[in-house]
C-alpha cells in the first residue's frame, strides 16, 4: 500500500514538473522530465544530474523501435537507478522517427543536440558532464554504436564506451530479407516493408533488386564499417534465435573489433530471440560488464 501511494504521488510530481518545465529535486539528484533539446516535438530527454559534484560521467539510453517508433519512457526507472547507484548523470532521449524526410544522419544530429543540452544543463547546476557511455536496444543500439564509433570528436560529451543489445551492425546483410538461421523472413515485416525501412534509414531508395546498388549508402548506417583500432570499448549482446537482426551481424562486429584490437565483450544468448528474454544468466553477466564499464570509464 505504501509503495502504491508513493508511486501515485511521484506520478503527480512528474506530471507537474513536465507541465511547468521545472526539475524534481531529491537529496541525491536533480531530475528533468521531457526537457526540450530542439524544435521538434520528439526533441525531449529525461535527465538525472547528481548533486554536489563538480564533474560527472553520463550514461545515455537510446530507445529502439525500428527507428520509426518507440519512446524514452521505457528507461525512466533505469536512469534513476543508475544515477543513484553510481553517482553519474543519466539520460534517456527521444529522437525524430525516420521517414521520407528524416534519415539516420538526422537522428545522429539529434544525438549531438541532446548532448549539447545535457552539457549545458549540467553546467547550470555546477556539474561538468564530461564523458559518456551510450546504450540501447535494437535500433537504439544501432544509433548508440554509430554515434560512439563515428562522432566521438565532435560530441559535446564524448563517448568512451558503448553497450549494444541486438544491434543491426551490417544492414547490407541479405539475411534481413530471409534468414536461413531461423528459417523465415524478417520478423518485422515482408520484403516491401524491409526495403522501405532501409530507404528511410539510409536516405536512398532501396528495393530488393537494387540493394546492391545502394550498398555504399547502406554501409553508412552500419556500425561495422566504422570500426577502427581507435573505436571505444564495446559490449555486444545478441540472441542466436533473433528473427529481426541476424545473429551473424553480432558475429561480424565481434570479428572486426577483435581484428582491430578493441576491448570488447561478446555475450551470446543461446535461448533468446530479439528480446533477449530467455537467458537471465547471460543478462546478469552483461549488466555486470556494463557496471564495470561505468566504474572504469566514468568514475576513475
CATH architecture: 3-Layer(aba) Sandwich
The level of helicity is: 25-40%
Which CATH class?
Alpha Beta
Q: Helix/strand-derived class? A: alpha/beta
Low-confidence stretches are 3-10
Brief characterization of the structure:
The protein has helices at residues 2-20, 76-86, 104-124, 139-150, 191-202, 215-219, 247-259, 280-299, and strands at residues 24-25, 29-36, 44-50, 55-62, 89-93, 128-137, 159-165, 178-179, 184-185, 234-239, 264-269. A hairpin with a 7-residue loop joins strand 2 (29-36) and strand 3 (44-50). Helix content is 38%, strand content 21%.
Question: How would you describe this structure to a colleague?
Answer:
The protein has a single domain (26-299), classed as Rossmann fold. The chain has eight helices and eleven strands. It has helices at 2-20, 76-86, 104-124, 139-150, 191-202, 215-219, 247-259, 280-299, and strands at 24-25, 29-36, 44-50, 55-62, 89-93, 128-137, 159-165, 178-179, 184-185, 234-239, 264-269. The strands form two sheets. Strands 1-2-3-5-4-6-7-10-11 form a nine-stranded mixed beta sheet, sandwiched between helices. Strands 8-9 form a two-stranded antiparallel sheet. The model is unreliable at 3-10 (pLDDT under 50).
Amino acid at each position: 500500500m505504501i509503495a502504491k501511494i508513493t508511486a501515485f504521488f511521484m506520478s503527480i510530481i512528474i506530471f507537474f514538473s513536465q507541465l511547468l518545465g521545472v526539475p524534481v529535486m531529491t537529496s541525491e539528484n536533480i531530475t528533468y522530465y521531457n526537457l526540450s533539446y530542439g524544435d521538434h516535438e520528439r526533441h525531449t530527454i529525461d535527465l538525472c544530474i547528481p548533486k554536489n559534484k563538480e564533474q560527472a560521467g553520463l550514461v545515455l539510453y537510446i530507445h529502439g523501435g525500428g527507428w520509426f517508433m518507440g519512446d524514452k519512457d521505457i528507461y525512466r526507472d533505469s536512469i534513476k537507478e543508475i544515477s543513484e547507484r553510481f553517482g553519474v548523470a543519466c539520460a534517456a532521449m527521444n529522437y525524430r522517427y525516420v521517414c521520407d524526410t528524416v534519415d539516420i544522419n538526422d537522428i545522429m544530429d539529434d544525438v549531438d543536440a541532446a548532448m549539447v543540452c545535457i552539457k549545458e544543463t549540467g553546467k547550470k547546476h555546477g556539474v561538468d558532464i564530461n564523458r559518456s557511455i551510450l546504450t540501447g536496444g535494437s535500433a537504439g543500439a544501432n544509433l548508440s554504436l554509430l554515434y560512439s564509433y563515428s562522432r566521438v570528436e565532435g560530441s559535446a560529451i564524448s563517448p568512451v564506451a558503448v553497450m549494444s543489445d541486438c544491434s543491426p551492425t551490417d544492414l547490407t546483410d541479405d539475411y534481413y530479407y530471409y534468414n536461413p538461421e531461423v528459417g523465415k523472413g524478417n520478423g518485422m515485416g515482408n520484403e516491401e516493408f524491409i526495403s522501405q525501412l532501409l530507404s528511410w534509414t539510409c536516405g536512398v531508395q532501396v528495393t530488393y533488386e537494387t540493394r546492391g546498388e545502394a550498398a555504399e549508402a547502406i554501409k553508412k548506417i552500419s556500425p561495422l564499417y566504422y570500426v577502427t583500432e581507435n573505436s571505444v570499448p564495446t559490449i555486444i549482446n545478441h540472441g542466436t534465435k533473433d528473427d529481426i537482426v541476424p545473429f551473424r551481424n553480432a558475429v561480424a562486429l565481434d570479428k572486426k573489433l577483435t581484428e582491430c584490437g578493441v576491448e570488447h565483450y561478446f555475450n551470446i544468448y543461446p535461448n533468446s530471440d530479439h528480446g533477449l528474454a530467455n537467458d537471465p544468466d547471460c543478462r546478469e553477466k552483461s549488466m555486470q560488464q556494463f557496471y564495470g564499464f561505468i566504474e572504469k570509464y566514468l568514475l576513475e
